[in-house]
């Protein structure tokens, strides 16, 4: 056993130290076996701030453009949810959506300032994506009055003054603008104290979401700046290129944190560009999302799912994640972020080969064959053991 360094302590201090375990044993012995009271006001406050689940109702639907809608959510007062939980701009909720026999869970970023929680409002913005089961269901079928079960707000994609530089360069691809919309509103209404420059990459002008809201904010505060980057339209009103070092150099300040949000393709591209700055890793944050379109493999594989009490055999197409296949087949697997970052779905790959995107696994996990099924696509038949 390692020797304690007791330098500087008197004999009495040492005696007291050795008495501690005995005192602790006595406290444990004397403690009542009845359940601990948890109805103190501090417990109620903690429950309101961090509820496990919340129940919401669609109160309003706003058409942002032909392929995108914003859904305004308020508490479903028929349930235990009377007040929506607070969040930090950039966080997301996971929403549970029953479609047919299956139940899908998808993360959507909260796209307004946290100040709106005072009015009991969340908003999520959803864009149509090819093969996007849940996104397309929302756009085509969800109506005012529909109710959903959602998680508490979660995720690490938010500004933290002790970790991030005070100037954020927000690099958004398509609907990856949502966290920056929340941040811009929060800076404008004073709930967030930092500076934000948004480089908003879209294919063409008609793809821009929140144009009016963003431009109104930039006209009111010089803490938020905005530049559009078109990759298809050659429009002189906007920078017409990809986001590269030359463009970034125009906007960087003395110290910058880079927040990247968009499809995996923009995330991979920006990783390459940002390498050139040799930044400490903490100054680059990302929130990538995957669409089935990015993986083109039509083969179908056999997947055996091993849970704590049964084995289930399903098929998984090479262009869908293992988690998506499980959801489709009614297998309930833990999940939250759906992009390989929260760790909720971490499972053991017993056999088979998978291709993984946005891999945030620890080295030890990789060594012992753990994967995130939410961001793993099969490349052979697979046997997967789910967490309990
Ligand atoms: S659901 Fe978050 S890592 Fe898979």
Structure description:
By secondary structure, the protein is an alpha/beta fold. It has 3 domains: 103 residues, Translation factors (Elongation Factor Tu (Ef-tu), domain 3), CATH 2.40.30; 126 residues, Rossmann fold (3-Layer(aba) Sandwich); 91 residues, Roll (Ubiquitin-like (UB roll)), CATH 3.10.20. It is built from 9 helices and 18 strands. The strands form 4 sheets. A 6-stranded antiparallel sheet has the order 4-3-6-1-2-5. Strands 9-8-7-10-11 form a 5-stranded parallel sheet, sandwiched between helices. Strand 3 and strand 4 form a beta hairpin. It is globular and about 75 Å long. It starts with 10 loop residues before the first helix and ends with a strand.
- What Rg, in angstroms, do the CA atoms define? 24 Å
What compounds are bound to the protein? FE2/S2 (inorganic) cluster
**Shape estimate:** globular
- Low-pLDDT stretches: none
CATH homologous superfamily heading of the largest domain? Nucleotide-binding domain of ferredoxin-NADP reductase (FNR) module
Strand content: 25-35%
In the CATH hierarchy, what is the architecture of the largest domain at level 2? Answer: 3-Layer(aba) Sandwich
In DSSP terms, counting alpha (H) and pi (I) runs of 4 or more, how many helices?
A: 9
Average pLDDT level: 87
Number of domains: 3
CATH topology of the largest domain: Rossmann fold
